[in-house]
Amino acid sequence: MPQARPLISPLPRSETRLATRLEAVGALFRLAAADLHRTLVGVDRFCRFVGGIPVRKRTPPEPEAIDRADRVVAAFEAAAGRYPRRDLALALPAAMVGRLRRAGIPAELVVGLRLFPLRAQTWVEIEGKRIGKAPSARDLVRVLARY
């Protein structure tokens, strides 16, 4: 019988801090909650819910905010690798947006349409810059909505 994978893979020595591990575990739970919420209420209501998440007023200084955003994105990408479902096109960016906004970073959930091959895509933007696994500009993506 194969052994179960641990929830969090061993991190490099430079990132063995407890805070980093807690961020990754929190990301996994937030991802599961976002996936369940999207399933229960539907895509339209879920996107409106994400759009209504307020940004905390206490925005950290710029270098600290960039570092915080990088840690959140890394934690969510690690959580996505451990999550049992692979169809996370909406849940992953939405959960990231919620976490970033609660950290005081004004993130946006962007829904776009890829023209060739035709399919919908979602990604996260902070002040107009795409973060995480976002489609590149050469993918000819047309923005449909921002939340």
Write the layout of secondary structure elements.
Elements: H1 18-41, H2 43-51, H3 62-82, H4 91-102, E1 107-114, E2 119-126, E3 129-131, E4 141-146
Antiparallel strand pairs: 1-2, 1-4, 2-3
Helix pairs in contact: 1-2, 1-3, 1-4, 3-4
What do these coordinates show?
The chain is α+β, with helices and mostly antiparallel strands. It has one domain (17-146). Helix content is 45%, strand content 17%. It has a four-stranded antiparallel beta sheet. The protein is globular, with a radius of gyration of 16 Å.
Q: Strand order of the main beta sheet, please?
A: 3-2-1-4
How many domain modules?
Answer: 1
Morphology = globular
Query: Low-confidence parts, pLDDT < 50 over ≥5 residues?
Result: 4-11
Largest sheet geometry: 4 strands, antiparallel
What is the oligomer described by this structure?
single chain
Distance from first to last alpha carbon: 45 Å
Q: How many DSSP H or I helices?
A: 4
- Which class of secondary structure composition applies to the elements? alpha+beta
The H/E string reads HHHHEEEE
Mean pLDDT: 81
